[in-house]
Amino acid sequence: MRMKPSRNLLLCLCSMLALGFLYYSSWRISLRGWGHRSLYDKQGFFLKLDGTLPLKLTYKYGNLSEGACKPGFAAAKMSAIYPKFIKLAPMFLDPNYKQYSKIGDYPSPFGVKSQEKIIDILLSNTKIYGLGEELDSMSCKTCIIVGNGGILANKSLGQRIDEFDVVVRLNEAPVKGFEKDVGSKTTMRITYPEGAIQKMEHYETQSLFVLSAFKALDFKWLRHMVLNQRLHSTDGFWKSVAKHIPRQPSDMRILNPYFIQEASFKLIGLPHNNGQMGRGNIPTLGTVAITMALHNCDEVAVAGFGYNLSTPLAPLHYYEKIKMSAIKESWTHNISKEKEFLVKLVKAGVIQDWTNGICSGGC
How far apart are CA 358 and CA 305, in angstroms? Predict the structure, then answer.
């Protein structure tokens, strides 16, 4: 039976329309996918960072009274601008640290590979692996990372700093004599052997001593400190180190090296170098501390961060007379790339910068 020409034409038109619809649909999907990718930078951060709360966060936090701690706020805002962020990393190493394969795959400073035996010895002696019963039981914690920048001088922020639940200080930055500007409260002091306070009288009466290990030798040094053994040699350190830490083993911790790994490879985008320490791929201790706080604190603030190289005669640190001009190009750090990351956090309101040094006056 022969089909009428008009019917043939109709079938042909229908086929063309169907094919056209499929092509148009795939083209729109392709465009939508392309547009989605263009919303994010190469690190995975949302390009539009204006500090505006997503609608779901506005509903969640909008009715809280002024000054009330916002549970999960820092992690929620971080996830909003960086969807790959997962709040999974504990602050310190504990006996279950081997289950975190991401740190087991890398040597120091990005992991614990080949250091498991000595870490097990350290953990069996320290016995406590959190901030302490009171802080660990809090449903909402505010944290501030106090940097060592000269920008802290004469700001009279001490009382406000002390109001935070957790006050984190770095290396040997002193408190005594600078309380008006930097406060007197110290929850923990994060450091490495070369940065640790060497004069016992400069230590606070109470605080956690937290090692951030940048090399295998740092774990051996901590073993001497925890076991109160005499340090016979300082070979392998790039400058002098403390030979005693006035803390009980129960007040010593090991910072989770995942934060160094995440800050370097994911958040800042420094060279991977096959997971080895190399030129320009180590984040500063301050940025490592901020990364730690994003995972473990509900609200995060910083003070004393940021170097303004346009003011060479300004003080580099709040506690000494060395000038900004003393900053030299670092072999290990990439300050400009690191600043790009910190500016994102400030612009998006993930962290609050109380001394306005990260954006150098404006974001």
Answer: 6
Let me know: does 298 contact 70? Beta carbons within 8 Å.
Answer: yes
Position 16 scores a pLDDT of 52
- 164 or 27, greater pLDDT: 164
Which tens digit of pLDDT belongs to each residue from 93-145?
Answer: 999 999 987 899 999 999 999 999 999 999 999 999 999 999 999 999 999 99
What pLDDT is stored for residue 15 in this prediction?
A: 55
pLDDT at position 67, please?
A: 83
Q: In this structure, are residues 241 and 86 in contact, taking their beta carbons and an 8 Å threshold?
A: no
In angstroms, the first-to-last Cα distance of the chain is 77
Q: Higher pLDDT residue, 204 or 313?
A: 204
Q: Which two tokens stand for residue 59?
A: 């509903």
Q: Using H for helix, E for strand and C for coil, what is the string for the chain?
A: CCCCHHHHHHHHHHHHHHHHHHHHHHHHHHHHHHHHHHCECCCCCECCCCCCCCHHHHHHHCCCCCCCCCCCHHHHHHHHHCCCCCCCCCCECCCCHHHCHHHHCCCCCCCCCCCHHHHHHHHHHHCCCCCCHHHHCCCCCEEEEECCEHHHCCCCCHHHHHCCCEEEEECCCCCCCCHHHHCCCCCEEEECHHHCCCCHHHCCCCCEEEECCCCHHHHHHHHHHHCCCCCCCCCCCCCCCCCCCCCCHHHEEEECCHHHHHHHHHHHCCCCHHHCCCCCCCCCHHHHHHHHHHHHCCEEEEECCCCCCCCCCCECECCCCCEHHHCCCCCCCCHHHHHHHHHHHHHCCCCEECCCCCCCCCC
Tens-place pLDDT, residues 229-276: 999 888 999 999 999 999 999 999 999 999 999 999 999 999 999 999
- Is the Cβ–Cβ distance between 190 and 212 less than 8 Å? yes
Burial annotation 124-150 (CB, 10 A radius, 16+ → b, else e):
eebebbebeeeeeeeeebbbbbbbbbb
Q: How confident is the model at residue 6 (pLDDT cuts 50, 70, 90)?
A: low
Answer whether 277's CB lies under 8 Å from 332's CB: yes
| 100 within 8 A of 107, measured Cβ to Cβ | no
